[in-house]
Specification:
Order of helices and strands: HHHH
Mean pLDDT: 92
Oligomer: single chain
Low-confidence stretches: none
Distance between the termini: 43 Å
Length: 84
């Protein structure tokens, strides 16, 4: 693995892991009133497009980061709709 790929993997890890506290908090409190459904919807669309972009370029850091981020964002969206 070269250093450019390592930077990409680190960036993908950090930006993806940043969603975990939100998911955990929602699961514990079942409170989503202050979360914007529109913002998360737009963000999910952007993450999905980044995933497609990564697949087309065959760039593993972009693919891995965005697959995991998309799953976490979908969890937040589902919980927002459920507990909304």
């Amino acid at each position: 693995m070269n250093w450019i790929t390592a930077i990409g993997l680190l960036a993908a890890t950090l930006t993806t892991v940043s969603f975990l506290p939100q998911v955990i908090k929602i699961l514990k409190t079942k409170h989503t009133k202050d979360i914007s459904l529109l913002m998360y919807g737009i963000f999910a669309t952007g993450v999905f497009l980044w995933l497609i972009y990564g697949i087309l370029l065959k760039e593993l850091p972009i693919i891995i980061g965005n697959v995991i981020a998309f799953i976490l964002v979908l969890i937040v969206l589902i919980l927002k709709i459920r507990y909304g």
